[in-house]
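Subgroup meeting minutes
Present: P.N., E.W., G.H.
Scribe: E.W.

1. P.N. recapped why we're keeping a running log of single-chain structure predictions: easier to compare across weeks, and new members can see raw inputs and outputs side by side.
2. G.H. added today's entry (1341 aa).
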Amino acid sequence: MARRRIYWVPRSSGGLVNLGLDVDDDMVSGLSYKTITVEDGPWRQQVREREAPGRGKYDAAWKTMIPFRPKPKFPEPQPLDDAGLFSYLMLSWLSPLMFRGLRRSLDENNIPQLSVHDAADKNAKRLHLLWEEEVSRHGIDKASVLRVMLRFQRTRLIFDTIMSCCFSITSVLGPVLVIPKILEYTENPSRDVAYGVGLCLALFFTECVKSLSMCSCWVINQRTGIRFRAAVFSFAFEKLIQFKSLTHITMGEAISFFTSDINYLYEGVYYGPLAVLTCLLLISCSITSCIIIGPTALMAVLCYLLILPLQIFLTRKLLESQNHTSEVSDQRIRVTSEVLTSIKLIKMYTWEKPFTKVIKDLRKKETKLLERCGFIQSLTTVILFLAPSLAVVFLFLTHTGLRSKLTISAAFTTVATLSPMRLSVFLAPFAVKGLTNSRSAADRFKKFFLQENPVIYVKALEDPSKPVVLEEATLSWRKTCPGIVNGALELEKDKYTPEETTRAQPPLGGLGPEDHGNTRDPELHKINLVVSKGTMLGVCGNTGSGKSSLLSAILGQMHLLEGSVGVHGSLAYVPQQAWIIKGSVRENILMGSQYDKAWYLQVLHCCSLSHDLEILPFGDKTEIGERGINLSGGQKQRISLARAIYSDRELYLLDDPLSAVDAHVGKHIFEECFKKVLRRKTVVLVTHQLQYLEFCDQIILFEDGKICEKGIHSELIQKRGRYAQLIQNMHGKATQGVLQRVTKTEEELQLEGQAQTTCQEELLNENAVLENQLTQKEKMEEGSLKWRVYHHYIQAGGGYLICGLVFFLMLMMVFFVLFNFWWLSYWLGQGSGNNSSQESNWTAADPGDILDNPQLPFYQLVFGLSSLFTIFLGICLSVVFTKVMGKAPTTLHNKLFNKVSHCPMRFFDTTPTGRLLNCFAGDMDELDQFLPIVVEQSVLLSLVVIIILFIISFLSPYILLIGVIIFSACLIYFRVFKRAINVFKRLKNYSCSPLFSHILTTLQGLSSIHVYGKTEEFINEFKKLTDVQNNYLLMFLSSMRWVALRLELMTNLVTLVVALFLVFGFSSAPYSYKAMALSLVLQVASNFQASVRISSETEAYLTAAERILQYMKMCVPEAPLHIEGANCPHGWPQHGEITFQDYQMKYRDNTPIVLHGLSLTIHGQEVVGIVGRTGSGKSSLGVALFRLVEPAGGRILIDGVDICSLGLEDLRSKFSVIPQDPVLLSGTIRFNLDPFDRCTDEQIWDALERTFLNKMIILIDEATASLDLETDILIQHTIRESFRGCTVLIIAHRVTTILNCDRILVMGNGKVVEFDKPEVLQKKPGSMFAALLATASTSMS
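Output recorded in log:
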């Protein structure tokens, strides 16, 4: 892939700007290219690396191994790169940013960019190299992505294993060596105090080392995960963009990979190494517990070993359930996406309620599956909390049942030793889930991106005199064409259609205009074609004959089955459906090319864009909405054409570029652009505008994928073949009804000048400042979550009473878990039970052998029954909790969709679909999948910490006081530094939308990106967006660990305090109680930091609910669907008479009027043709009629009824529309004709034959613009026959197609210019309609 040359020049602001992009702007191709400063940009780092080619592979890593690194004279932009070992492991490099968050001065402008070592570019190259080595060793079929994953993180996995060993050792070191010594010291306080204090400090030190080791494992894993995520993200995108068309993967599969599979692979690297930690913990705890209490300790280990398979089993079941759930979720998201994309059509058809029901039913089905997943997930959480208690119960019941001696010290030392094993129960599901999901994701990664490579069949010709040569070329959209199987046609599920030939850029699995036949034969058969340099080749034929496929073949998008295709010179391409990028008009035209003012102005003129730019609010800096929603069809097509002309290429492929423009504009473009600007270029022009073919140097006619006629215009006319027949039909149509030739006068030219209208719909002046563009930057909340978010979520979950019941069940479960430890201490404290003084037994270190206690069975019975009751409580909790947490997101989802679907069109014009989809997809996923996990864990952990604190407070009330002070300080500390965490989390959430918008834009315009040589720019922009997202993700994860580590170190002070109280003898509590308290206090630090950290994650995930509530607040509904007491008269409208009375309309507040005081009457059952220049207000009439925008003045009456007095559904259901941009929903043809099964098959077949619509008023908005003339004539005949007795409004660019209408309405500048019968207007002197007709007739003749 050729690298794009880069020209960096300094700016006055101190940054660098690339002259390969637009000099005047920092926005290119609708995508933000941030100015990079020399001091803080990754570009400078890359320059440093290139300047030091001798740098070793592990240089940066070895520097990090230095325990303490002095601050360098020239620090790296990312402080992580200057960190020493302790700074790295303790995350001290992040401290300045955390303190900046404390001062509320942290935002995206002062957050360092991602380290060059973690950036997408470097890691993608490394992954590519590793994959190539894997393929060279094992071959492409046996090459393993998992082996590559292992090699990618091999060195870091070794360091992670070392830290895991350190954690496992320190986890048992304190309980085995220190705790027995402390308990022994408490019984002999006369010994040296320094020795006792030393024991306490030793316990504190081992706990701190344990905390640091665990944190280090997470630090290593998260950075490794970030690197691999960046590598896979970029590698997959680079592979994807190599294809000029996607025949091996659908749009849905590609999006699913980038949204889901990438995260699965990341989790495999992030959580996979935890399997090593789990095994090491099991080994260390098993060995030490056996040393302390003997072989019976293996019973506890066995209990854990039984729980682990159960956890793994539940995790696998969870994954299976999630796979089923994801299928329904994908279906819901797909339907939601189509509804949001097609919302204008849905509103016109009054399909809001049926589609709302469809989506709610899908959500209901999804919720049932989510509840099953949630129940399994909740069970795994409950098992995590029950495991230590159950293991202890099982161990000591077995131990006493075998009549083995059990002392207080040995018992609680064993409890403390086994306690870390609960972490293995907690980590095992994460490891299993991460590895399982990553394995399936790795298979898809290999299938879609690694095994498939683009086949480049277009040869580079050496002869410049022949830019295009096809020899015996047979091409298909499929790799093979097996044809007929078993006597019937074998239809593929996923036929591919190039996005350039489809309407409204549908998913890549749809059918295209060239694939509507029932055959699987190749689309192009044995094509022989030579195009000479500097000639204009005209390509014509009926719809579906193979014209667009010819251009796709030259572009290299299809599969070459036989023959050859050759091209010489650079290409420019104008697709039939314009590919528009979100950005300004200028950015769409330049596409990253250098700005040449003179050439740019010439291009605007020849593409007839100059006047449009004059009336746009910010000229060529005006932002174009998503998919060009604020442009007319003609304006989008002309911008696409201007992009091709500005690129100044040698060969131009134009796919029906004049279909969406009126005759006058079409003639101007043909004369000024095709015949003048492109006069020395080679042009292949596919067109249904047959009047222009006589000016072509060569003409070919396609039928059924074959060239049936070839030659110049005069020769083909003389042959009297199919071409001559098409031309004859065109001339007949052109002259039909023309009573006299009308020549242009100065007056007519003036009238035409008046027809240069204000822009339609959204091309309006919002404000005079550039900041108030159509689409504003998404608002990001600041600070902690407001209480109203919690309130609304609790209400959505069933209210405070239901949530209170869930909390009570959690409290009871935690109480009985800890009750078992208290009961064990009480039982052991009773000793033999035979002494006369029970008090002495209770306080003594050795109260006697519990096996001699006559009440031994009672103690065992209570011990066992309490565990069974705890299990019962846990199951009840899982059931109730799952129901509540499943109900809340569904309630919010349904409320949001109700509000969004009832928003007026101006909301959708100014809100990108990606943002709304992020709510219905990404945010809902967080509420469905992740929020329940963290809510349950955070509440349970908090309750455990609180109850343990109360238990140890019985040693001394001062411990409670000190504990409260320490915990309060920790909470304040967390509360203060949580501001930085919230900033990182919100920035991470908001960084998703630009990245996925970029992916969608790329997928929709692959061929154009290749034609204009912009693959490198799109890859670089993708890497930049990926680095931004990964940087915020790394900062968020690191900030959480930064706070968690410091909280754990602070709460280890509670352990120190308890130990000191015991050593100094401040507590008069029984010996068994002291042993229990000391064993339990070891859990406080890890549980407390985990509860605080997970509580913070809970708040972070609740920002998804915050966004949903924010959009619900933004949604201001349009007029009601029904108005009580204002039902329309029975049988209305009976005649279909439409009256505009001084009607005025504007699209949004603070925008100019687009329809100026219209006053006219359209009689019932009248067919009215509506014409006018592009943007004259033709389509705005339909918008007004359907009340997609409310009037600014005046009113519209239909059969005497003011349409504003009716409900929207009552009004719109009486109309029918064929829109300018038809949209096909995913599904069968029958589903598109009747999405809600309202019609019988007979009615469907009748509709297929006659395009039948049973409504009184019909609006047809340029429905035949892209069809050939014969099909157009057939449809006009169908309209006359099927819509007889209806009032029909036909908006048309082809003036000749509406000559049979009863009357003609000529629009200009948002006003009625003329309105009369066509024959009257043709005779009228100075008639604008006559001038338009003359222009069309002249060009066609």
